[in-house]
Amino acid sequence: MSIIEKLRKPRILGIAIFDLVMSFIMMGIIFAILGLPVYIGLLLTIPVGIFAHWIFGIDTTLNYYLSISELPTSDLPTSDLPTSELPTSELPTSELPTSELPTSELPTSE
Q1: Whether 17 contacts 10, CB under 8 Å
Q2: pLDDT value at position 1?
Q3: 59 in Cβ contact with 67 (< 8 Å)
Q4: How many CA atoms within 13 Å lie on the side-chain side of 18?
Q5: Using one digit for the tens of pLDDT, what is the confidence trace for 50-88?
Q6: Which residue blocks in 11-92 are alpha helix, DSSP H?
Q7: Cys-Cys crosslink for 53: which of 8, 58, 64, 107, Cβ 3.0 to 4.6 Å?
Q8: 62: nearest Cα among 9, 15, 11
Q9: Nearest Cα to 26, choosing from 38, 8, 14?
Q10: Are residues 16 and 10 in contact, defined by beta-carbon separation less than 8 angstroms?
Q11: How far apart are CA 98 and CA 74, in angstroms?
Q12: Separation between Cα atoms, residue 6 and residue 8, nearest integer Å
């Protein structure tokens, strides 16, 4: 797991805390450099982020909550195990017995 993945792991409602904090910091810096009121930049951070992700077609959790985009695949639950460590069947699928499966019917209630 890379450093950025570790930083983005803590979340609130599926939204990375690191992303929010960095967005607020960058908007504050940009507005300070431009000589504009920093509080205006901080208030615009979320709406600008929503709009920018929508324009560029980037799926985000917040845009998903707002029904603007799909749920990002990175937010879907995954296993921490690498796929090479997942258990596999020792038998090839062509050798699995199928004739030994029970063929009884389920009891019906009358």
Answers
A1: yes
A2: 81
A3: no
A4: 8
A5: 999 999 999 988 999 999 989 887 655 554 444 555 455
A6: 17-33, 38-55, 61-65
A7: 58
A8: 15
A9: 38
A10: yes
A11: 38
A12: 5
